[in-house]
Design a protein that fits this description.
Two copies of one chain form a homodimer. Chain A is of the alpha/beta class. Chain A has six helices and 14 strands. The first copy, chain A, is globular, with a radius of gyration of 20 Å. Chains A and B meet through helix 1 and helix 6 of A and helix 1 and helix 6 of B.
Chain lengths: ~325, ~325
């Protein structure tokens, strides 16, 4: 197969603590900073910028201070005028855009790998915005061959990049990594080690790519976000009347068919899936999504044909 | 074996939301209140008072507003003078003591069952303060025969009742129920159902006891709190340098022997258990204990001989 020639990836950032209580990323970024201090800038085979994205939220071990920072990186929010009453996260998002962007410009950093945890049983999921970012797809494919302890999947949000609101959208080929299940405010060694392996292997892929390695294309599975489903709620008080059904809990990316159980009410009744099309639920029972009115998202499975890629020589 | 005759248990309270982000108890108390509204006061075979213990923390889905309420029920704190600047939880603890106590008095409620969740893999654990509260021991024994999905254990804190600081210490035979693992801020149906079964079976036991059923004694296993162990920390910044070791994570109540792994540092080194005596760790990697400087507690296993009990007739 003919190769697609792509530019080398010059600058990469690894970001943790965009949500201050998702601790694997916080401790991994701090460990990388310790390693750089101990071994010097040559500790990785490519230049890596490390960023603790929301330091005040990390300090307080909260998701955010004023507003969810990972919704602050749309072009509109990044260019909104600042006042003293602007939310802390909006102010800090603009500072990160100055450090790593400017978003959408030729100067934007090549790659942001933004580290997240979820209470959902998502294994290792790479999330990004386009069905045709071959760099991200190849990195996912590479991680699938290297990481065997949990499933590795790619999820595409399919939002125009100017509307894309999360930190990695500032870079040319960014993605976020979700690793779970891990309670927020807790660090589990097993989840930390999976995240560390994913970051190490991403750096490894970029180094190999920049050094001229040819990465073969082929067919690849991806999931595309379709829509969100809320919990059943009391119509007056808006309080939850049901939890995720035990048969659905922890089964992220399973295939939902008509009649499958979705929720179990606190009084014991089962609510079933009644839509026509079969879809794949993910972010099932994610802690941070209760306040957003999301019990889980639904995705459609796609098969993408990705090209063979290698670096463009000057 | 000769029976010990004990007074009937006239009043019982089921409390949830003492920690506002431990959601099984919150939803279970709300469901019990809904059932009472639907079916009337005779819904249970004994009188049950239901209490949402920390309503402001529940509203904000936080552990507490000003201070951990489950440390506010010592005799000293309950009798401390109130001012406008007293912590919300201390004020509200005094109100609950008026409703359910007074602690230590003849008027105190017979039983408080206080509902908690933990991120630790504790199964169902009954926690209370004395190695000779035969009512609690018999309820635990009864739950052990009825609940088969998770281990049921009893843990004794062995603190004098006036120093005992948690809500259930207000009652004559109180205990708290810890069910886990469940992330704080999340409700899992499987954990909710275990908690519901435990409360239903406790009510069932009290009804049978009050009705004259004889409960046979015998030998019983219990765990007694010995001491707490903190995470390894950077001596200057006090930040964690290690997580619970994967071989210890989720193994609450296992037997720790010299040389067993305790922690895995973020740079990859293992820290082992080096004490002489073999003990049992519990509350391993509990989210809320990071700020308290506790990675896990250690307990000693006891075998208690409990007497046969039956109700004292007037």
């Amino acid at each position: 197969m003919a190769s697609l020639f792509l530019p080398a990836l010059g600058r990469m950032a690894v970001c943790g603590g965009t949500h201050g209580n998702e601790l694997s990323g916080v401790y991994l970024v701090q460990e990388m900073e310790r390693q750089r201090k101990e071994k010097g800038d040559g500790v990785w085979p490519i230049p890596v910028t490390t960023v603790l994205s929301n330091p005040r939220a990390v300090e307080e071990c909260r998701r955010y201070i004023d507003t969810d920072m990972n919704r602050c990186f749309s072009t509109a929010t990044l260019s909104s005028p600042m006042t003293d009453s602007s939310p802390y996260e909006v102010q800090h998002a603009q500072e990160l855009n100055n450090l790593l962007g400017l978003k959408g410009s030729a100067d934007a950093i090549d790659m942001i790998c933004d580290l997240h945890n979820t209470t959902s049983n998502m294994g290792l999921t790479l999330i990004h915005y386009s069905t045709s970012d071959w760099v991200t797809m190849h990195i996912c494919k590479y991680l699938q061959t290297k990481i065997t302890k949990v499933p590795v999947r790619v999820l595409v949000m399919d939002v125009p990049i100017s509307d894309a609101y999360s930190l990695e959208s500032v870079s040319k080929h960014g993605f976020s990594i979700e690793v779970g299940p891990q309670p927020h405010g807790v660090v589990r060694a097993d989840i930390y080690l999976i995240m560390k392996e994913a970051v190490d292997m991403t750096i490894d892929w970029i180094h190999k790519f920049n050094s001229g390695t040819v990465f073969e294309g082929g067919d690849m599975e991806a999931f595309k976000f379709i829509k969100s489903i809320d919990y059943p709620r009391d119509p007056e008080t808006r309080t939850l009347t049901a939890a995720i059904h035990p048969q659905l809990q922890d089964r992220d990316f399973c295939l939902l068919k008509r009649g499958d159980p979705l929720f179990l009410s606190f009084s014991g009744e089962t609510v079933t899936y009644e839509e026509e099309g079969s879809l794949h639920p993910f972010f099932i029972n994610e802690c941070a999504y209760y306040e957003k009115g999301i019990a889980f998202h639904l995705a459609k499975k796609l098969t993408l044909t990705i090209p063979t890629v290698q670096v463009k020589k000057d």
